[in-house]
Every structure is written in C-alpha cells, then in structure tokens.
Amino acid sequence: MARKSYRVNFPGGNGYQLAGIVDRPAPPSDSSPQDTLIVVFSHCFTCNKDLKAIVRISRALSEQGITVLRYDMTGLGGSSGDFAKTNFTTNQADLAAAIRFAEKELGSVTALMGHSFGGAVSLAHAGNPADSPATELKAVVTLAAPSDTRHLADLLARRDPDIEKLGRGSVTIGGINWEIEQQMLADFRTHDLPAMIPAIKAATLLFHSPNDETVNFDHALRIMGLMQNAPGTPNVPSLIALQNADHLLVKNPADLQFVADTTAAFLQRYAKPA
C-alpha cells in the first residue's frame, strides 16, 4: 500500500510546541483519506521520532494500512523546551497531548506503541484509562520496555553522582552529552509503574531481546507476571523474544520488518475501532 508522510506541530502537555510526523496509507487521488487504525508511537529516553527503528516501523505499518503519529517529547528532536526540566510526569502529559491531537486530526486512537522508556509511558497511560483522552484504547505494543521508572533514576545517579549531590549533572548517551537535573530522578522515583501495569485491560504485545544490555530481559518477564497475576480478570499479554537483537534494533534490519509485520497483524486483530 502506498504511504503518505507529513510533518505536524501541536501543543504539548507542558506548554511547548511538539513536532511530529504522521505516516499513513495514501488514499487514491480521487478520494478522501480512508479510515484506518490510529497508533501513537512514543520514543525512548533521549531519543526522538527520527530514530531509525521508529521511522522504519512506522512507515512499514502505514504501508500495511495503519496510521501512525510519531512525535518528539518536550526538549527533544524538533520539539521546544528544555530536556533537563522534563521527567516521567511531563512524558505522560506529552503523550496525552499527542493523543488529543491525533483524535482531533486523524481519528480515534485505538493503540499505543512505545520504545524503551516510551514503552513505560505507554504502559502507564494504558494502566490509567480514566485519565486518558483515548476513548477507544484497545491495544498497547512495547519494544524493550522497562517494568519500572526507578531503575533509570538509579542508573543516571551512578553515571554522575553530581546530579544528586549538586542538583545537576550530565551523562553521555548515544555519544551525546545530556544535562540532567535532580528533579528528573526524584520524579522517576515517585511513580509506581508496577502498580499501574496490572490495571491494563488493553491487549498487550511485548517485544524484548534476551540479549538487551540496556534494559534487561527480566523487565519483560516482570511485566508479564504483573499482568498475568492481576486481581480480577488478568490480562494475558503476548511476549516475543527478539533473539540476538540489540536495544535500538540496529544490528539486524530484518528485526524491524518482523516487528512491523507482527505488530500490524496484532493491531488488525485487536485494535480495530468499533
């Protein structure tokens, strides 16, 4: 299916303009855009919408009839704001803003997708449906998502103790030096993602590599356990192990096509709007 991609800008959840790209199936020239599944894709910590994996997966989904909004969170990519001032709370606000934009401009958002920390944001959002602007959320898909936010706070603190000692420090991620404030770590430690995950009712698909050196595979197993052992009617998620894949999915391009194809089939099965 032909693809159409275009840039968008919209108000974020923290007073800044966010940049995004819509990848959608291109309609015939003589008709209006057809109704499709709408997915909002959240990127990883310090990443952006133009990460190779996100671009390739989003485009591949659009070529299989699914519309994707990928966007930059506050202070990253093409979005305005100061990254050092952001945290998990601001991430959630930006996701809510992206959903509101998509609901207004594209149609009902029925699925969320997130890579790494963006996966955690998506899981938290799906676990609080009453607070979500997505009125028809039916599915959530994650790539290498952590099962909590506190581990990242501890990791950043170990990399530069000045963050907590002096209130501000810096870490190098992906060859780029990032300024980090203590408020970010403090916020990460206030969120109880393991308490939110069992409340997820949307169909859930987890991709994770047993070889991931950034977010250990144990996180995927923990998410599975939290959902399967939820009180009431447990949600039974699907877990696909991406053997020999790396955290950013750059080692083997075939992994990206596999993720896109499997996600498309999953969403067509579980996320079609009513």
Provide keyphrases for this structure.
274 residues; alpha/beta; Rossmann fold
Describe the structure.
The chain is α/β, with parallel strands linked by helices and 274 residues long. It folds into 2 domains: 3-148 and 192-270, Alpha/Beta hydrolase fold, catalytic domain (Rossmann fold); 150-190, no CATH class. Helices cover 34% and strands 23% of the residues. The chain has helices spanning 52-62, 88-105, 117-126, 150-159, 162-165, 182-188, 193-196, 218-228, 253-270, and strands at 3-11, 17-25, 37-42, 66-71, 109-115, 139-143, 168-173, 176-181, 203-208, 238-241. Strands 1-2-4-3-5-6-9-10 form an 8-stranded mixed sheet, with helices on both faces. Strands 7-8 form a two-stranded antiparallel ribbon. The radius of gyration is 18 Å and the shape is globular.
What's the short version?
The protein is of the alpha/beta class.
